[in-house]
Amino acid sequence: MNKRTLRLIIVLSSIALAGIVFTQVYWVKEAVDLKKEQFDNSVRIASKSVVNQFLNQMSDSIFKEKIYLLSCRKDHLVITDYIQPTLLDSLIDSEFGCMHIGNKYYYGIYNKPSGKFVAGNFENYEEKIRNSEFQFSLYSIYRPGDYYLSIYFPSSTSYVISKMKRMIAFSAILLIVLITSHIFVVYTIFRQKKLSEIKNDFINNLTHEFKTPIATTSLAAEMLVKENINKIPLKVKKYANVILYENTRLQTQVEQILRIASLEKGNFNFKYEKIDIHQLISSVIVSFELRIEKSKARITTKLNAKDSVVSTDITHLTNVIYNLVDNAMKYSPKVPEIIIETKNSKKGILIKVEDKGIGIAKKYHKDVFKNLFRIPMGNIQDVRGFGLGLYYSKYVVESLGGSIDLQSEIGKGSTFEVYLPMKKLKKM
Ligand code: ADP
């Protein structure tokens, strides 16, 4: 699938997902609103019923008589004479119970023009009760239209939401699963795509790296089989050397790939023995002699570590130092200037390989240690490699209980710093 189709599919599916999320949120909100409306209606019905029952009691002549007899002011009855707080309380309680209204409420009977309360459980909520949406006129009690029964619910919305919490939670879980899996799928697609690009690059590099020595060796071999070549022993030697050199190169590359393959399989064996790091560095430099001569490179050593003997794996550590020096040479387009420095630190030894080459941009500092990663370099594409060296080096150094760090600035050069503990910390 090409990049554009893939991008289009991802954009379309993301839009569809956003649509589903929006619709779901919309329907949940609608359901909450509906439930709230239902709740409001229940409160209104229950409150109306309370008021009606209350008014019926008022018109009950025996009740009136009772009140009249009880009152010493006879002609000057006030509303508080009519209201029996316990009766009001139990009426509201039973009516709300019938309508399944279970959340906390505060109510009061108050005079609307003056704002004065005459009954209810209004403590600290007077203002809220006065402004409540549930107000019912006690129309025919005493002075008509002045007195109101008002009810205030401190948590009506949260009560409605709590009633619907299962449905809301279920929708939220579905949406989270949907969004997470979408992100995961998109991430995996891009990761796979990147991986396949990296693998393609690797195969291209591999083909190129193998093609050159194969062509050179077959050319040299062709020359050797020519009948009269025995007469010129110098030429025989020259062609044999070419075959040997190219063969060694091929061998090194194949070994590098096989090393990574066995690393990935997890069957890496480390043999610990006491090694003098300074000797190891010297032997690595010797193996670069021909290249140093050819490129006029300058390798300076500052072997300052007083204690340079470490218990470690000589083969793998040699490969690591070789890789670092090899990179320092490869990525120095002018005359390579390399400094190899050692010093003791924190119960271990530090080995620095510094170059004044092209450097590495900060954004790639972590990536260069990843498997098959190569910095895309338009201008120095001729520098060949597989992107395996630093991945292998990091794995080895960490397995030996150490660490590898990079300091680099583009255009100024790079410093790779390997720390190794004096004692082996990890057993492989
Ligand atoms: P490669 O075989 O490509 O050199 P490595 O794993 O050794 O693979 O390095 C990964 C990438 O890190 C290289 O492709 C290169 O872009 C970058 N790199 C490594 N060492 C240096 C260095 N000393 N200077 C600049 N870039 C470097």
**Number of alpha- plus pi-helical segments:** 12
The description of the largest β-sheet is: 5 strands, mixed
Please tell me the total number of domains.
3
Relative helix content: 55-70%
Shape: elongated
Question: What would you report as the Rg, rounded to the nearest angstrom?
Answer: 44 Å
What is the chains' assembly state?
A: single chain
The distinct ligands, each listed once, are: adenosine-5'-diphosphate
SS-based class = alpha+beta
Low-pLDDT segments, ≥5 res: 424-428
- What's the pLDDT, averaged over the residues? 85
Spatial order of strands in the largest sheet: 6-8-9-11-10
Give the ordered list of helices and strands.
HHHHEEHEEHHHEHHEEHEEHEE
> How much beta, percentage-wise?
15-25%
* Count of beta strands: 11
Distance between the termini: 43 Å
